[in-house]
Write a structure and sequence with these properties.
The structure is a single chain. The chain is mostly helical. 70% of the residues lie in helices and 0% in strands. α15 crosses α19. It starts with 8 loop residues before the first helix and ends with a helix. Pfam families: RGS.
């Protein structure tokens, strides 16, 4: 009873709600980060997702926390927190759109380039609908636009762009602060009744740019993209919620006829509702999926069916195409090429005569493509495995079985992570995946 003594009814509602929501944000985000090695989380960009949470917390805490003391709330806090929170959330969403577009199109390029030059054009034509064929595929990854500009799609580079956008936003807010009296800090802090005003124009304009220009641009890159993790679906939901909340906020804040409604449900609460739902899509549901883990999925996908798929050329081709959506193209290409190497070595008595030149060329091609430093198709292998293979190549101690340990790891990765998602997909949906 003591903690609530002297509180108004609105304080008893909004203060606990604000605290509870931030507790949910922090706890679920910690769980999200703890599951960073799970495929359900890995491709969602931990850093950009955390940026979304920080923006979410700033905006929702401001909009909920100021409600009980609306008449006495410091006005400069309104404009400065809004200048950071909402742009941070919107730019993080835009950055995640860009990352997803890059991951898919880069995987697409690797899948085509990884086929090698032998019969690639025929294979490409066979699996592409006739109306989609525009030109033969690029065989050299260096010629691909996404590969050549891959550094511009790293999380580190995107964070720099977000930092630049926030710096610009804060500079505009600082300029506004110089000329405003409604949001003044000195000589006295302006208090209360400062939810609207010309001072918010820079925030509205930049938010409108992110919502109606930047995000739609990145969405256009996702045309035809259908990832195996539901990331596109999640981001589209975030974008839709952002658009609806932005429009409703402007509408309710600007129209005098809606003032009666605002007394019950403030205009800013549309943003609060949208951000709460967004957090469920972006953090809570992926975390639940990651905690469920792949152990249950593996139990439903027995090894016998997995082996059968690997031995069936048609099924493996479909599985390889699915790996595009799973962002694990390297694994299927490595498995395919090492399997081809093993077939080439069947019946060879290389211990007496040494390896034929074509076998040595194939072994070195696989090493340079998948294992060597800065390999274009670098595998996600244990450090000890990579170190062992590189040492053997440095010592010129290579043979048909040099990749056996790596192949075992790759098979395990495919079985534990990619195959469970593959078996869930219908044959019809897989046929709609275009390369």
């Amino acid at each position: 009873m003591g903690i609530y003594e002297g509180w108004t009814t609105i304080q008893k509602v909004y203060y606990p709600l604000t605290i509870a929501w931030n507790f949910i944000l922090i706890s679920t985000t910690i769980l999200f980060i703890m599951q960073h090695n799970s495929p359900a989380i890995r491709y969602r960009s931990i850093t950009l997702s955390v940026f979304m949470v920080i923006g979410n917390s700033l905006v929702t805490t401001l909009y909920l926390g100021r409600e009980p003391t609306y008449d006495q709330f410091p006005c400069f806090v309104n404009i400065w927190v809004s200048s950071v929170g909402m742009p941070l959330w919107l730019t993080a969403v835009a950055g995640r759109f860009a990352r997803l577009a890059f991951l898919y199109h880069f995987s697409q390029a690797k899948l085509v380039a990884g086929q090698g030059s032998q019969n690639v054009n025929d294979h490409y034509i066979d699996i592409m609908p006739k109306e989609k064929i525009a030109s033969p595929p690029t065989l050299v990854l260096d010629q691909n636009w996404y590969y050549r500009h891959r550094e511009k799609f790293t999380t580190k580079y995107i964070v720099k762009l977000i930092s630049g956008a926030l710096a610009l936003q804060l500079a505009l807010t600082l300029l506004v602060q110089v000329f405003t009296t409604k949001f003044q800090i000195t000589p006295t802090i302006a208090l209360g009744h400062c939810l609207v005003g010309w001072e918010f124009i820079p925030i509205y304009l930049t938010s409108a740019f992110y919502v109606f220009v930047l995000c739609p641009l990145f969405i256009s890159w996702l045309r035809g993209v259908n990832d195996a993790y539901g990331i596109k679906r999640e981001l589209m939901a975030d974008f839709t919620l952002g658009v609806v909340a932005f429009l409703l906020y402007i509408l309710f804040a600007a129209l005098p006829i809606l003032k009666g409604v605002i007394r019950v449900f403030p205009a800013a609460h549309w943003s609060v509702v949208a951000l709460m739902i967004s957090h469920i899509f972006s953090i809570v549901l992926p975390t639940i999926d990651a905690i469920k883990g792949t152990d249950n999925q593996v139990s439903n996908s027995n090894m016998a069916s997995f082996e059968s798929m690997l031995e069936d050329p048609q099924q493996f081709e479909i599985f390889k195409r699915f790996s595009l959506r799973d962002f694990s193209v390297e694994n299927t290409l490595f498995y395919e090429q090492v399997s081809k190497l093993r077939m080439m070595c069947d019946g060879l008595e290389y211990e007496k005569e040494g390896l034929p030149m074509n076998i040595l060329v194939e072994i070195n091609m696989i090493y340079n493509k998948f294992i060597a430093r800065d390999a274009e198709f670098e595998l996600n292998l244990e450090a000890a495995t990579v170190r062992e293979i590189r040492q053997r190549f440095q010592a010129k101690d290579v043979g048909p079985h040099v990749f056996d340990r790596a192949l075992l790891e790759v098979r395990n990765l495919m079985f534990r992570y990619t195959y469970p998602r593959f078996v869930k997909m219908s044959q019809k949906s897989l046929q709609e995946t275009h390369i």
